[in-house]
Write a structure and sequence with these properties.
Layout (H helix, E strand, L loop, with lengths): L8 E5 L3 H12 L3 E5 L3 H20 L8 H6 L1 E4 L10 E4 L5 H14 L5 E4 L6 H5 L8 E6 L8 E6 L5 H13 L3 E6 L6 H17 L5 H12 L5 H8 L1 H15 L8 H8 L16
Parallel strand pairs: 1-2, 1-4, 2-3, 4-5, 5-6, 7-8
Antiparallel strand pairs: 6-7
Length: 287
């Protein structure tokens, strides 16, 4: 599906935080969305989240109240992978585990038309490696959306070694059609965003572990002195400390450079279940 105008139906694989945000954005721009997950309860939760986020957009005058029913009606929740066969474009957004992504992508590849484009929303895993798990490596690439997806404009569009020019150009255009800012990036561990961001978060954690400053002080220095809208430790809590450690491990494995070694404090906090906002406690406490 190299003609971006011919893309009408988009499938999103995974209805978690990233998946429901991606479904939301495509449906808001008029696309029919097939949202697939393994259990109905995950789909129900995703639709409830999308509904709540649409209400937030109504309050901010992003959409009109009359728009909401139509947006929700364009999202079709399914548990059967065969139901995505009608999709022109697919975005996989399952958890950041290599074998899980390979399994889901291979299953999707088997049911899709040969001309459909298949994308992975990964924050660090090799897109070239994932492309090789499919029968359409020339029509495979990465789309790294930022969280929260309905709010954040950036999409890193990652070109695998095998990605063809047509699929890449169509994806860049598709990002613009859904109101995103696509930035072309070649496949490398962590791409640009996490290769730069994760060492910053990691060094901030070392500052806390070594007693240089308290978390709030570290964040205040970066917000006030460097004009960051959010401190690195606040951002780490928002992302999830477990996700930060996983990405740092991918960077370390990919580059074999000690600068990507995860801070021991981060590992201890993850072991304790202090994962950030989603668990109620990280560098800060949340109610």
């Amino acid at each position: 599906m190299s003609d971006v105008g011919a893309i009408r139906t988009v499938a999103v694989l995974g209805a978690g935080t990233m998946g429901n945000g991606i479904a939301h954005v495509f449906a808001r721009r008029g696309y029919t969305v097939i949202l697939r997950d393994v259990e109905q309860r995950f789909l129900d939760r995703a639709l409830a989240t999308i509904s709540k986020n649409l209400d937030r957009e109504i309050k901010k005058d992003v959409i009109l109240p009359a728009d909401k029913p139509g947006i929700l009606a364009r999202i079709r929740p399914v548990t059967d992978m065969a139901a995505i066969a009608a999709a022109d474009f697919v975005v996989e957004a399952v958890p950041e585990r290599l074998e899980l992504k390979r399994e889901v992508l291979a299953a999707a590849d088997r049911v899709l038309r040969p001309d459909a484009i298949l994308a992975t929303n990964t924050s660090s895993i090799s897109v070239t490696l994932l492309a090789a798990a499919t029968g359409r490596p020339d029509r495979f690439l990465g789309m790294h959306f930022m969280n929260p997806v309905p709010v954040m404009a950036l999409v890193e569009v990652i070109r695998a070694l095998q990605t063809g020019d047509e699929a890449f150009a169509a994806t860049m255009q598709l990002c613009e059609k859904i109101g995103k800012k696509p930035v072309a990036v070649n496949d490398s561990p962590g791409f640009v965003s996490n290769r730069v961001l994760m060492p910053l978060i990691n060094e901030a954690a070392f500052c806390v572990m070594e007693g240089v400053a308290e978390p709030a002080a570290v964040d205040e220095v970066m917000k006030t002195g460097m004009n960051h809208p959010m401190g690195p430790l606040e951002l780490a809590d928002f992302i999830g400390l477990d996700v930060c450690v996983d990405v740092l491990d991918v960077l370390f494995d990919g580059f074999r450079d000690p600068k990507f070694r995860a801070c021991p404090l981060l590992r201890r906090m993850v072991a304790a279940g202090w994962l950030g906002r989603k668990s109620g406690r990280g560098f800060y406490t949340y109610t």
